[in-house]
């Protein structure tokens, strides 16, 4: 360990650093010009900070964090430190490299004034020890399209809009503004930088096998863009000479139920398509309920997705809105010394709240990871109390606090970063 150096990585070292990322993620250790360009663009657009651990000239561990905004319950955009590209070479694992890089980065993020840190955890057991808790979940569906698409009795609003096929250039024009409207309405959504749109539309290729997808846009009756979808079709497979194509949705964004319904109906009605597979959707996704027979949509995945680490309890609790008026005193334990303390949360009837450090006796005692899990409204304090992960200092305190913390829509982060 003594000759290992952890330090910031300069642009001239990106190839070495990206090769280490590929090695850690078990991808071919080949770095393309587009990958290098994407890294430079992310630096410029999101102030990315890249760290590496070097054993001599060899990069043996990687870590990246960048500026992000996370949507809180109520729609406020909260400054977040997004963590990504975390790898340690198989030759250097379990010697504390991740721990050193993460601790340093979280301390710097706190110092900068970020309210939370975010990440998508490769494996569940890694990040809880650093104060991260799972905070938004996602689901995937497979729809029997031949069954669902031909039936006209879909539920939900019709909207009277229209759908058009568009190309990548139009997606780059229409997508960012639609996404801004989308993320304001969904707790757990995160900001996107322009390079995201260039990557999804192939201006910068994410890999050698990238192929052009189809895109469709939904415009409302008044002409407003309310939905966009990117999808591909797989090899034609026609068992017994029956249509059997599979259509997979890469991503779908919608700001109104009518747009969502229209886009799903469109996809399920395309000739030859027997099955439609969804991308990662919100746990309260409307898709199955639009269908004449909701069982035509099979749940194929339900998993934790976005993880959160609260860095500033007062600002985090004041940034979101609350569903009821009331108050609660929380004793938050944070062994890393970044965000712990005792806090009184006072929520008003208009949904806003104030949060102050207090010496009053606590209603609930919980770890900072548990607070991260409930902050977006996707987990309940009662459930965590039942598991022994939240302690009720007063009987019924978890139920009372749940009435404040619940969210009108479940949190969802459609992005992988
Ligand atoms: C946001 C993202 O980028 S997610 C991607 C994470 N990266 C990967 O999954 C790629 C493959 N894995 C790796 O590169 C490495 O194993 C890492 C990054 C997960 C861990 O790096 P390491 O340097 O080995 O971690 P470190 O030595 O600091 O371990 C810290 C603790 O986490 C535990 N830990 C580390 N990885 C895992 C794991 N995959 N499963 C369970 N526990 C783990 C260690 O046992 C150790 O526990 P301890 O503190 O009780 O002793």
TrEMBL record:
Active site annotation, chain numbering: 127 (proton donor), 417 (proton acceptor)
Residues given in the record as acetyl-CoA binding sites: 86-88, 94-99
Pfam families per record: Acetyltransf_17, Acetyltransf_9, SCP2_2
UniProt record, GO biological process: aminoglycoside antibiotic catabolic process
Keyword ATP-binding carried by entry: no
Keyword list, A-Z: Acyltransferase, Transferase
Domain N-acetyltransferase: 4-153
Signal peptide per UniProt: none
Subunit structure: Homohexamer; trimer of dimers.
Record-linked NCBIfam families: PRK01346.1-4 (NF002367)
HAMAP family: Eis (MF_01812)
Family the UniProt entry places it in: Belongs to the acetyltransferase Eis family.
Protein name, per record: GNAT family N-acetyltransferase
């Amino acid at each position: 360990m003594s000759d290992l150096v952890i330090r910031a990585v300069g642009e001239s070292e990106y190839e070495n650093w990206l090769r280490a990322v590929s090695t850690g993620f078990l991808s071919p250790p080949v770095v393309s010009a587009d990958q290098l360009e994407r890294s430079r663009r992310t630096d410029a657009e999101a102030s990315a900070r890249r760290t590496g651990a070097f054993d001599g000239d060899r990069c043996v561990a990687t870590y990246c964090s960048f500026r992000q905004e996370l949507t809180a319950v109520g729609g406020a955009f909260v400054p977040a430190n997004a963590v990504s590209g975390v790898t340690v070479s198989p030759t250097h694992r379990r010697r504390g490299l991740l721990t050193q890089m993460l601790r340093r980065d979280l301390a710097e993020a706190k110092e900068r004034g970020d309210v939370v840190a975010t990440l998508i955890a490769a494996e569940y057991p890694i990040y809880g020890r650093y104060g991260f808790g799972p905070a938004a979940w996602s689901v995937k569906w497979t729809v029997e399209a031949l069954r669902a698409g031909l039936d006209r009795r879909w539920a939900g609003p019709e909207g009277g809009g229209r759908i058009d096929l568009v190309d990548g250039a139009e997606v780059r024009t229409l997508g960012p503004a639609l996404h801004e409207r989308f993320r304001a309405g969904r707790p757990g959504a995160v900001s996107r930088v322009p390079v995201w749109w260039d990557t999804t539309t192939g201006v910068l290729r994410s890999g050698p096998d990238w192929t052009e997808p189809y895109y469709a846009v939904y415009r409302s009756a008044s002409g407003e863009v309310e939905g966009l979808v990117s999808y591909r079709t797989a090899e034609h497979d026609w068992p017994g000479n029956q249509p059997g194509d599979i259509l997979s949705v890469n991503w779908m964004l919608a700001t109104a139920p009518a747009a969502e319904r229209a886009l799903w109906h469109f996809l399920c009605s395309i000739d030859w398509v027997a099955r439609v597979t969804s991308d990662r959707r919100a746990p309260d996704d409307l898709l199955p309920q639009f269908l004449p027979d909701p069982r035509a949509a099979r749940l194929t995945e339900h998993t934790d997705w976005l993880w959160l680490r609260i860095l500033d309890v007062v600002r985090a609790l004041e940034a979101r809105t609350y569903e009821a008026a009331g108050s609660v005193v929380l004793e938050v334990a944070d062994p890393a010394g970044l965000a712990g303390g005792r806090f009184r949360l006072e929520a008003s009837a208009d949904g806003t709240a104030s949060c102050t450090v207090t010496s009053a006796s606590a209603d609930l005692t919980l770890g900072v990871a548990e607070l991260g899990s409930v902050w977006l409204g996707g987990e309940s304090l009662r459930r965590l109390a039942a598991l022994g992960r939240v302690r009720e200092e007063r009987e019924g305190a978890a139920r009372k606090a749940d009435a404040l913390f619940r969210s009108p829509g479940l949190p969802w982060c459609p992005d992988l970063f």
